[in-house]
Amino acid sequence: MTISGNKRIPDASVYIALYAAIFSISIWLLVFHADSPNNWILYIAVIGSVVAGLAKVALRSVKGLQRAE
Fold it and tell me: Which DSSP string do the residues of 34-69 spell out, in sequence order?
């Protein structure tokens, strides 16, 4: 039996998984550890993951529009 190493995971799937993991872990920690003094780091992580995800989608859309022209 041989294993093919030629399969590739789409970049979008990797980015979605990464942003979802950061977002969900941060939200979970904020909900269940509301009295933590380090919550400001979690708020930055939540906002950062949302902004990074939106920026990635926007850049991908701009590249698609530029190719179409």
Answer: TT-TTHHHHHHHHHHHHHHHHHHHHHHHHHHHHHH-
pLDDT(1) > 80: no
Q: Is the pTM of this model over 0.70?
A: no
Structural domains in the chain (count)? 1
User: Residue 3 falls within a domain, yes or no?
Assistant: no
Tokens, residue 21:
């993991």
Distance CA 57, CA 5 (A): 28
- pLDDT value of position 25: 84
CB atoms within 10 A of CB 59: 10
